[in-house]
Structures are given as C-alpha cells and as structure tokens.
UniProtKB/TrEMBL annotation:
Described purpose of this protein according to its UniProt entry: May play a role in DNA repair. It seems to be involved in an RecBC-independent recombinational process of DNA repair. It may act with RecF and RecO.
Keyword DNA damage attached: yes
Domain Toprim: 81-179
ZnF region ranges: C4-type: 58-73
Superkingdom of origin: Bacteria
UniProt cross-references to PROSITE patterns, sorted A to Z: RECR (PS01300), TOPRIM (PS50880)
Official protein name in the record: Recombination protein RecR
Gene3D superfamilies per record: 3.30.60.80, 3.40.1360.10, 6.10.250.240, RecR Domain 1
Keyword tags: DNA damage, DNA recombination, DNA repair, Metal-binding, Zinc, Zinc-finger
Amino acid sequence: MEFPSKLIENAVGELSKLPGVGKKTALRLALHLLKAETDTTASLAEALAKMRFEIRYCDTCHNISDTPECAICANQLRDQSTVCVVSDIRDVIAIENTAQYRGLYHVLGGVISPIEGIGPSDLTIDSLVERVTKAGSEIREVILAISPTMEGDTTAFFLSRKLRDLPELHVSSIARGIPMGGELEYADEITLGRSIVERQRQAR
C-alpha cells in the first residue's frame, strides 16, 4: 500500500497493530483523525497516554483501577463473603455486565499454561490464598469463573486443590452454560449470568 506521506504511513502502521484492525481500517481511522478537529485528536492521544502510564491495579483484587483500591473492593454494599476468581480483567467486565453478581473479584492475570511457560507462581494465586486466610476475612465462598479451556480447567483444578482444606470455605465453579473451549468475554450476557447464578460446588 502506497502512502502520500510518511507520517500517514507511520500512523497506519501503529493503528494496524491493534487487534482486528487491518491496513485499510487503519488508513480510514488515520484519515478521520487527520480531518477531525485538532482538539479531538489531541484529546485521544492524551487519553491513551494517561491510560497507559497512569492506570494502576487494585492492591487487593488486581483489577484495573485509578486508585490503590478499585471501586468494587471499596464498595461496602457488595457481598464481602464471596470472591469470584477470573483469569482476566475482561472477564470482570463481562460478569459485571450481567448484573447477576454482587460479590468481589480476584483477577489471576492469566491461566496456568506450561506450553507458554506460565506457572502458578506467575499468577496472583498466593495473593488469593492470603486474602482468604488472613485474620478477619469475611470470605466464605470462592467462585472459579475461569473459561472452560484445557488451561482454564487446569487452573481451576489447581485452585480447588489449593483451597480445599481451608475451613468454612466453599469452592464453587460456574455452571457449564459456557461451552467447552469458549471464552467468557464472548458469551452472551444471559448465558453468562445464568452460569454465575447456577454455579456448582467443587468436589473436594
């Protein structure tokens, strides 16, 4: 693809690195931003820079946050006795959109995958165990809401074994309304909501 300007070519090259954005779409976006008001393009650039360099992760659940404690953990109206364990931040957003769950979350930051060199120590599993076992913890149920892939099932099994001997703690998993091999973020809200409501107790 030939470009009339090296600056346009550079912009298209960067935009096309985004997921699902090809060269043609990147060119349309670049030309749109070129024709837009200067303030519009400047605001977009500033918002992206602030998101990348100023956003942080919740000290408790590892969800994205603007402050040391995210809005969900800070909300005392949420069920403090239930923690929903997910692999990715996108899963938190997906579950929240169902409006079926009012407990807390814990973001693992991935799943166990020996092929990719990701082991338990690379995830926030120790942080989860610390949350559950620390003095004064109100947590009585841990819901494993991990995508039912091979790696997801391996991670869920590891977690259930890790938590099974803790007294007065129930470990459950979301009902299999989510198809095998599916990803939570792509599930429709009704199916995902029903999976949370109809969660199943993990075998010890």
